[in-house]
Design a protein that fits this description.
- The structure is a homodimer of 337-residue chains.
- In chain A, 44% of the residues lie in helices and 17% in strands.
- By secondary structure, chain A is α/β, with parallel strands linked by helices.
- In chain A, strand 1, helix 5 (88-102) and strand 2 (106-112) form a beta-alpha-beta unit.
- The longest helix of chain A has 16 residues, at 301-316.
- Chains A and B meet through helix 4, helix 5, strand 2, helix 6 and helix 11 of A and helix 4, helix 5, strand 2, helix 6 and helix 11 of B.
- Strand 2 (106-112) of chain A pairs antiparallel with strand 2 (106-112) of chain B.
- Chain A binds a DNA duplex (16 and 16 nucleotides) through helix 2 and helix 4.
Chain lengths: 337, 337
DNA sequence: TTGTACGCGTTATCAG
DNA sequence: CTGATAACGCGTACAA
C-alpha cells in the first residue's frame, strides 16, 4: 500500500511577504516580473520564494485575471481516425502541444461523445475553465461551435466545418492534393482511374472526392466508399474490381484504405503498379512500408496541429484571423504509382 | 475575418440571487444540490439559473474548495510509441478519458520533454492546477514522481516505474505474456527460438525479454534488440538470420517489430510459419492484417487506461491502493505461429 | 430552512 | 518604487 505523501502546507503570497519583510504587492510584482521593483528587494523576495518553495495558486490568480491560460481540444469520441493505427490524432496533439508549450498554455483534452456530452463541453467552456476551444473535425449540423461563439468563447476548428457557421479553421488542401494525385495518374497514361472515397460526412472525405472528380475532366468516375480504415479499403477495392475489372489506377482517400486495396489487388492477382497504379493520402508511417511502397499525398499533420493552436492564440490576443488557414499537400512518389 | 463573439457578461451567483429574490447562499445550495432547501425556492432558483444561463465560475469555486476536479496525464514527449502508428497512446487516452468522464473529472494532457520540462510539470501540479497526476512510462532514474509525492500530490504510473520509488502503478503482465508465447512455441515443437527485444530502458522491453528468457528453460537465448518500430524489427530480424540461420521461431516484443520481421523473413525466402514461426505482442490493429495474420499476445490497452484513472481517483478519495495493479494478457492465435 | 459574513490567494488601483 | 486595500466569485460555518 502507498500512503498519500504528507500534504505540506502550500506557502502563500502572504507567507512569502512576511518572510521577506515586504508587502504582498511587492512579492506579486516580483513573481510576475514587473520592472518597477528595487533590485535588492527583488533579490530578497526571490530568495524567500526559493526557500519557501512558493508557487502561485492558479485558481486565485485566474479569479482576478479572468484567464486560465488553458485551452481545450475537443475530440469527437467515436471517430475511427482516432483509435485506429492512423497516427493522425497523435500527430495533431503533438503539434498543438508544441505550440501551446511555447506559449506557456496548457492543453485540456475533452472527449465529447455526442449530444448530451456537448452540453458538458459548453458548461465547461462557459465556466471559464479554459480561455478558448479547438474543435476536432466537426460533423454535419453540430450546434456546438455556434453556441460557443455566442458565449463569447474563441473557437478554431480542425478541418473545415461542414455547416453554415463561418468559423476560423485550419485544414490541408484536401481537394487540391487529391486532384494532383489524379492528374499524376493521368499523366502516366492511366485512363480508367477509380477512387476509394472516405466517409461523406467528414470534410476530408468530401473534399478528396471532389478533388478526384475535378481532375477527371469528363472521364467517367468510378467510386467506392470506405471508412478510412484498412478493412473498408479492401472491401471497396473488391467492389471496384467487380464493377470495373478494367480499371488501371486507384486513388484512395487514405493510406490505410490504400493499404487495404493493395492487399485486395494482390489477392486478385493484379500487379502493382504494372496492372493497377495506387495512390494513397496522408503519408502515414505505413505508406513507406507498404508492399510495394505507397505513392501518396502527404499532408503536414503536425503543422496542422501547430496552426490550430496558433490561430487560437492569435484570437486570444485579440487579433483577427483569416477564416481559412490552408496547408499545402505534397505528392510523394514511391513505387505503387 | 471572424470577430470574437460579443463577450456577454457572465452571470454570477449574486445576479442569480437577486433575480430569484433569495440570498447567494441559497442559490449556492441549489446549484450544489443541497437537500436543505424548500422545494418552491429551489424551483424559483433553478428557473433563474436557466433564464440567466448561469454557470459556476470554476476558479472561484476551486479557490474555496481546494479542488480542481482536473487530473493530469503526463506524457514523455520523444517516445517512439506515441507518435508512430502504434495505437497504444490513443488507447490509453481513450480508457483514461472514459473513466474520468464518468467521474466528472477533466483530463489535462501534458507533454513533458525531459529535465527542464519536468520543472514545469512540478510547478503546474504544485500550483494546484490539478488534483492528481498520471505518469506515462517513467524512464530510468526520473526524479519527477518522487518530487510530486513529496509535494503531497497523488500519483499513479502507467507501466512499472524503473527506479527505487515505490509508486502505485498499473501495467500488463508483460513477463507472463511473453513467457506464455515462448512456451506455446516450444509446445509446437520449435526449438531454436529467438527474440526481438524492445528497448532495455523501458519496462515493457525489459519485462518481455525476461519473460522470454524464463520460458527458455536452459535453451540458449537468441537476442536482437529493436525500438518497438517496424524498421527496427526488420533490422533485428536480419541480424538474427545472420547470426542464427537455423532459427525456427521468433518472439517479437511488439506487433510492429513482428511485422517488420515478417517482411524481412519473406525477403529472405523463409516461409511463415512453416520455416519460422512468429509471435508478436500487443494485438495491434496491424496484427490481424499482417501477412500472414500475426499470432500475438494481446494486452488490454484501454483497460490499462481505465485502471490508471481509477487508481488515481481512489487515491483522491483517500483510499489506499495496491502498489501494483496488473492486467492479464492473452495469447491470440492466428496463422504466423 | 434561510441569510449573514468571512475567507480562499491573487492582482490591480491608488495613495504616499 | 512601495504598501494598503479593494475586488474577483464562491462555499460554508454560524446565527437567526
Amino acid at each position: 500500500m502507498t500512503e498519500r505523501g504528507s500534504a505540506r502546507e502550500r506557502p502563500t503570497l502572504e507567507m512569502v511577504a512576511s518572510h521577506a519583510g515586504v508587502s504582498r504587492a511587492t512579492v506579486s510584482r516580483v513573481v510576475n516580473g514587473s520592472e518597477s521593483v528595487a533590485p535588492h528587494l527583488r533579490a530578497v523576495v526571490m530568495r524567500s520564494v526559493e526557500v519557501l518553495g512558493y508557487v502561485p495558486n492558479q485558481a486565485a490568480r485566474s479569479l482576478v485575471t479572468q484567464r486560465t491560460d488553458a485551452l481545450a481540444l475537443v475530440v469527437p469520441e467515436p471517430d475511427s481516425r482516432i483509435f485506429s493505427d492512423d497516427p493522425f490524432f497523435p500527430g495533431i496533439i503533438h503539434g498543438v502541444s508544441a505550440e501551446l508549450e511555447a506559449a506557456g498554455k496548457q492543453l485540456v483534452l475533452i472527449m465529447s461523445a455526442s449530444g448530451e456530452s456537448h452540453a458538458r463541453v459548453e458548461r465547461y467552456a462557459a465556466g471559464g475553465h479554459v480561455d478558448g476551444v479547438m474543435l476536432f473535425s466537426i460533423h454535419g449540423e453540430d450546434p456546438l461551435p455556434a453556441t460557443l461563439v455566442r458565449l463569447g468563447i474563441p473557437v478554431v476548428c480542425n478541418g473545415r466545418p461542414l455547416g453554415e457557421t463561418a468559423l476560423p479553421y485550419v485544414d490541408a488542401e484536401n481537394e487540391g492534393g487529391a486532384a494532383e494525385a489524379v492528374r499524376y495518374l493521368r499523366s502516366r497514361g492511366r485512363s480508367r482511374i477509380a477512387t476509394i472515397a472516405g466517409p461523406q460526412d467528414m470534410v476530408a472525405g468530401i473534399d478528396r472526392l471532389n478533388g478526384y472528380l475535378s481532375a477527371l475532366e469528363g472521364a467517367p468516375p468510378l467510386i467506392a466508399y470506405g471508412e478510412f480504415t484498412r478493412a473498408s479499403g479492401s472491401a471497396a477495392m473488391r467492389e471496384l474490381l467487380a464493377t470495373a475489372p478494367d480499371l488501371d489506377a486507384v486513388f484512395a482517400a487514405s493510406d490505410l484504405m490504400a493499404d487495404g486495396a493493395l492487399r485486395m489487388l494482390r489477392q486478385a492477382g493484379r500487379r502493382v503498379p504494372d496492372d493497377v497504379a495506387v495512390i494513397g493520402f496522408d503519408d502515414n508511417v505505413v505508406a513507406a512500408f507498404a508492399d510495394p511502397p505507397l505513392t501518396t499525398v502527404r499532408q503536414p499533420i503536425q503543422d496542422l496541429g501547430r496552426g490550430l493552436a496558433r490561430q487560437l492564440l492569435r484570437l486570444l490576443d485579440g487579433e483577427d484571423v483569416e477564416d481559412a488557414y490552408m496547408l499545402p499537400t505534397q505528392l510523394v512518389i514511391r513505387e505503387s504509382a
